[in-house]
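User: My instructor asked us to take a sequence, write out its structure as tokens, and then describe one feature of it. I'm not sure where to start. Here is the sequence I was given:
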Amino acid sequence: MKISLASKETGLSIGAIRHYINLNLVNPKKINSKFDFSKENIIQLEFIRKLKSMGMPVKDIEKVIALRKISNWVEPEDINEYHKILSDHKEKLRSDMMAIKEMIKQADQEINENTPTKERTSTGLPIRGLYLLYCPHCKKPLVLTNAQMDHKYIYQADLLCNTCKYSALVQDGILITDSKPISQYDKPDLERQVYKDNSTDLINIINRSSQWIYDQMIPQNDKVILETNLNSFFFLYQTMDKLGSNNLFIVIDKFKDLIAMFKKNLEYLGLDLDIIYITNNDFCLPIRDKCVDTFIDFSSSSEHMLFNKTRLIFNIHPYLKKDSTIYSVFFSLQDGCLSRTYISKHYPETSPDNFNSNKYLHSLKENGYKIVESENIATLKNTGKGLSFSFHQEGDKLDINAYKLKR
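Assistant: Let's start with the prediction itself. The structure tokens for your sequence are:
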């Protein structure tokens, strides 16, 4: 009988049968370099399948088959040895079953402990942050009308400049501005595939970068803290509540759906934080000049330059205080590397200066910032197959550096 028929007869795969032959558990004849299975071989294979169905490990199956080969399977000593192997295996199964039950119990406990026990508490534009809302053109305070609010938050409202008639909306607690159209090459990462598809090495490096910024920042009290371009990375998402008390956070992204997703998730945590959520794509922001103490640039500059020729710092600069601090994580590629060619293929609107640390730091220097702390977090030559750096070509150096800058 050919191996294909033996497979069909026994229900074992051809690969499994070849494996058992290699282990000398079954020894079919060879005719013209092909195995020929006898009726006895089929009986052996079916017996092996029965033992495997009990979960018996290969080393015990080898013992049983050896006993079977040297015995008529009636000798009391051999039968007793077989029974002992089965009994020992049965005890091992009982032990495993107890361990599995305990694992299931622990998994159930973990599920219960990580299931939200309270309903999501809706938040809005914090009343405490109203003093920051200014017309981006006239530089005068915006007037609040048609507001739905409570003692802490504004949920729906119109914002108007009485001088130039600039207007913005508060919808579902999010400040929505009119701004330039979003690039056809850009889309919101609502499933967070940018994070999920990253290699383990890259995830560890991102976590180390986040920890470096966090260690440099703490404590932050009574500060206005800004982060933009959340579609790639969002540092504050996991650190807002740990940075200190009484901070006012401003988070900005071009995609309303993305902002709404993060807002909803943070609301489930029940954090008592003041967060101004803004949807904007041109950085003509309805906030007061020179109001931001701390700017988080966790690859925000690079994401911005995938769809713009200008550097992010020149857009953000008017809103930063004279003594402000920038905390930055920057991913840098060498000039002339193959990955740079692929950036423009993936993102046709990108700037040729993107992912260039020298030009990035020079732009910060032009705006009066000096490095006070820095660290090379890592250098990667393989970023995996994730979406974060889909343009990166294996072998090209990708430097990940963290900076603290002040002016």
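For the description part of your assignment, you could build on this observation: The chain is about 35% helix and 20% strand. Try explaining in your own words what that tells you about the chain.
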